[in-house]
Amino acid sequence: MVKAYLRYEQARAFGVVASPEAPPVYDDTGKHLVTAALERLAVWDVRRGVEAKSLLPPPRESGALPAVTRIARAEGSDLVAAGHADGTIRLWSLDDASTDVLLKGHRSEVTALRFNASGSMLVSGGKDTNVVVWDVVAETGLCRLRGHKDQVTDAVFAEADAAHGGGGASSSSAGATGSSGVRLVTCSKDATVKVWDLDTQHCAQTVAALGAECWSIDVDPAGRRLAVGTSDDRLHLFAINRGGDEEDEDFGEPDTSDDDETPKKKAKKVDENGTGTAPMTQAQKAASIADASNLLTSIGHVPRADKSRVSSVRFDKAGSGLLGVQTVGRAIEVWRVRSTSEKAKRLKRKVKRRREKEKLRGKERDGDGLQGASAWDGAGGDGEGLTAADELELAAVIRPKAKARGFAWAPRQRRRPGVRAVMAVLVDNNAVEEYEIGQDADGVVAEEPTRTRVIDAQGHRADIRAVALSPDDATLITCSHKGVKVWNPMDGSCLRSIDGGYGLCAAFAPGGRHAVVGCKSGALEIIDTQAGTALGGMKDAHGGAVWGVALLPDGSGFVTASADKTVKFFEWRLVDVEDDEDDEGEGRRELGIAHVKTLQMAEDVLSVKVTPDGKLLSVSLLDNTLKVFFVDSLKFFLSLYGHRLPALCHDVSSDSQLLASGGADKNIRIWGLDFGDCHRSVFAHEDSVTSIAFVPKTHYLFSTGKDRLVKYWDADKFEPLLTLQGHHASAWCIALSARGEFAVTGGHDRAIRVWERTDEPFFVDEEKEKRLESLLEEGGAEDDGDDDRIAAAARENASAKGGVAPAGAEAGMAGRKTLETLTAADQIVDALDVAGHERTRIDDHVRANGDKDAGNRAGNGDDQEDEEELRKALDEFSDEEDEDDEDDEDDDDVADAVVVGGASLSAYGHNPSYPSGLPPNPLLQGQSPERYALSAIEKVRAADLEQAVLALPFSSALTLLDYLGGWLEAGEKTELTCRLASLIVRLHYVQLGATHKARAVLLRLRPLLRKRAAELRDMMGFNLAGMNMWETHLKEGGGGTKKDDDDDENVAQFTDELIKDEDAPGLPGWG
Asked: How far does Cα 938 stand from its chain's mean position?
């Protein structure tokens, strides 16, 4: 009989304020701050410093949840995107903490993430060198852009219309390039900045003259300047060309001067007063045209105060005129963007100095120098225009106490009088600090920003090296390098923080109120968990680090193991303590300890345990051995040899029969305490085993390792039961509840994870199959990189020959092949096969019974005469010229006349009933074959549909294309049907053109697609007009007066008339 076990699953994780991989973002109000807390998002109430929400993705069947590496928020919305280490992107709603969209497009970590100004598009870049553009509304990928040769570090949209009211980082390039103006700017570690035209999906410009790795870019709120941070000590600035003769808009701080002339107007005025403009040569005209076709024009660079490389560059979108530049060190530089009047004065002084120099030299020129000096963007060859140094100046430097790992500008609502801007700084020690950048009455930025808030109470600053549970499992203590924190393990709330030494081990005293902590300095600290105070303890208990603490079963004391080669026995005592606050000088009594006896060892002692029966004492030594002694006499009993490296931890079962040890040799050994024989040695972890604990009253045990895994074992069968993946760094320690209902682990990632035992049984063989499936999925992800390698080779060959890269070398499909997409493709193929067999069964029954009507409904389509007539009619229609209204009418006529085998496409695609005498197929669940195939496609997620269709064999794609006509005629899921038609044609363009049968199907679909698309367009326009009318009415109405009620009745009457109008389009889904 196969034995079943009860499953352990992660119930909650806490202790992480903010992981350093992803910079934080504010919500739209500025009251909450969203940080990455390993695999989840934590939403913090900034003023109270408490966690308001926790956004945790749903668990996966296999593998740990990936860590969040990038966060982006859509302006003016509660939508937040989180990029993960496995290349996936998840969209969250901050209002209801829900997530329904998972985008898969990268094969490795997401390193860049940004929304456009309207929040309808999202761009992501990864370590796989690819850039993917996503349609947020349709929840699918638009395109994959290839061209970078190293990790994509940042990306930003440059949109033509957002600079005049979009409120986001954007620019207008329509005038310069003649397109719709949708541009995307990306940077990479390959020292290039690329500009992508999203309309044509190709690289429009490459800036490769920076000479250093590019790490971050950002566009100013006005969409006029692009800042680029590199690995050298310079901050580069580019002008974004908007084309035409548009006036240059200020992107700096608000201009309070009375002079309302822009720098360009002043430059023109200077030029008019000068000697005039010299005519341009042909070479100059060609260079000017080439410059106008580029989106970015360099205007120089400024030297930074911190010489380390840039990590992040961000403009304050709230209009403060500040630019933040974060480096990999401790500094965040705050640069002030000069106002329009300041830049105009600097330009005027430049022109004046130029004239003075020419007068001194006695040279008369026609104004070549003045023309260059009046150019606002500094594009002149002599460089006399405004440069980056003229536009930016260093205003302040923020230096947090720890290394800065990211920052975010707060919205305008967080400002108060005397405060220019508010910034949240993510530091490397699991905390977030908030700074206020002040200004005086004249608007001068304060040089020393003020730290106002710190969010750090809910986590440790460093590794969690020890955890311990109270006897009643109601209190949890964790030890780190600067003290102890007391937690409620049921809800993860931090109850108290107690300062102290670097704790390496801990254990609760009987009663559960006090605990003893062994420190790295050799001290023993006694803490009161209810009062949150540290008691006396013993500072000189050991001469080296205390590596282990074990309670005596009788509750009289405890045993400690230390690096000073001693094992010491201590007992609990009540000691008198003088109370300084007591005027009478009377003392009080508190819990203390007293040293009883010492066991001297030959090597450093790494861990110590006392058997539950109180008879034996076991220690692990630095010489790779474990030794067992009698507790009462301290006489030697057993020596356990076998580990090739020191045993870092060990534990004894509740019946005192088994001892399990884990060592730096990655093995777990099971020993018998009766004779000291090794029952089995098991290769347990990929790295050192750090802790071991038996489940009370069983022979099951848990182990943790530096390989981030927590494993569950059966010590009797010597086999692993479960592999619990959750930690993102080394797991250091574990503690089990009194009855084994849950386990608590802590590690290098500063996370405390609670694993609860469920009522769900599992079998060992099933877990092995799940592990194999996860390995299969990882292998599929590796194979998915073939397209990128082929595209890179095509680009290199084209570059070597001086030609243009072929189609697909720069742009590709956004999706990524995963196990889910392959499974979805298999389900679609199975559904098409079942539907095809059922249609054949219906046709055979119709032929046998002579049921012509049912034969028409079945849609055989084998009548050659009808097929020829159909093809002739469609060929005549396809030869007509496409004229807007006339074509729409012709399409409707042809669509109404289309027949397949004598049946209308509506009956061909939608067959709700079976012919008489034919029993229905139970697999179809009461649906027609066509509807059954459509239901299988509806179950595929929108983000996976592209890759699922790509995985279909061509025969199945052709069969699916044959079904589309019936679905369109029946009005079944028009949007989905149109998308399927587009995907199939785009993916199988060559094969469809070479297949005669496919041509007839495509000609049949053409009028139907046009007709349904026109209906959707009319419906959306009508609904939009109705909603705009309601919005206007609500804005004009105001207080619930009688007039407003009359207006409501008039609007309702008008709406009813529209609905009754026969010429009005249908209103499905409206109202």
From this structure: 26
Which residues sit opposite 818 in a β-bridge?
A: none
Q: How confident is the model over 464-515, as pLDDT tens digits?
A: 999 999 999 999 999 999 899 999 999 999 999 999 999 999 999 999 999 9
Q: CB neighbours of 252 closer than 8 A, spacing ≥ 6?
A: 321, 336, 337, 338, 339, 340, 342, 343, 391
Produce one character per residue of 432-466: b if its CB has 16 or more CB atoms within 10 Å, e if not.
Answer: bbbbbbbbeeeeebbeebeeebbbbebbbbebbbb
Residue 881 Cα to chain centre, angstroms: 48
3-state secondary structure of 876: helix
Residue 75 structure tokens: 């302006």
Strand, coil or helix: what is 956?
helix
pLDDT in tens, 115-174: 999 999 999 999 999 999 999 988 888 889 998 999 999 999 987 544 433 334 433 333
Alpha-carbon distance values, 578 to 107, 533, 589 (Å): 65, 16, 9
Backbone angles phi, psi at 326, to 5 degrees: -100, 135
Q: Rounded to whole angstroms, how far apart are CA atoms 743 and 713?
A: 14
Q: Which of 681, 714, 680, 677 lies closest to 699, judged by CA?
A: 714
DSSP 521-570: TS-EEEEETTTTEE---BTTS-SS-EEEEEE-TTSSEEEEEETTSEEEEE
Total residue count of the chain as it appears in this document:
1071
Q: Are 549 and 527 in contact (CB under 8 A)?
A: no
Name the strands in the sheet holding 587-600, side by side, starting at the edge strand that comes first in the sequence.
546-551, 557-562, 566-578, 587-600
Residues 657-688 pLDDT 10s: 999 999 999 999 999 999 999 999 999 999 99
The contacts of residue 591 (CB under 8 Å, 6+ apart) are 509, 514, 526, 528, 535, 572, 573, 574, 575
Q: In this structure, what token pair is assigned to residue 645?
A: 């490296």
Band (pLDDT 50/70/90 cuts) for residue 459 is very high
Give dist(CA 496, CA 458) in Å, integer: 10
In this structure, are residues 263 and 386 in contact, taking their beta carbons and an 8 Å threshold? yes
Q: How many other C-beta atoms can be found within 10 angstroms of the C-beta atom of residue 641?
A: 11
Cα gap 185→226, rounded to integer Å: 9
SS3 (DSSP) at 428: coil
Percent of the chain scored above 70 by pLDDT?
Answer: 76
Report the alpha-carbon distance of residue 991 to residue 950 in Å, rounded: 13
Distance CA 105, CA 947 (A): 10
Q: Which pLDDT does position 346 carry in this prediction? A: 85
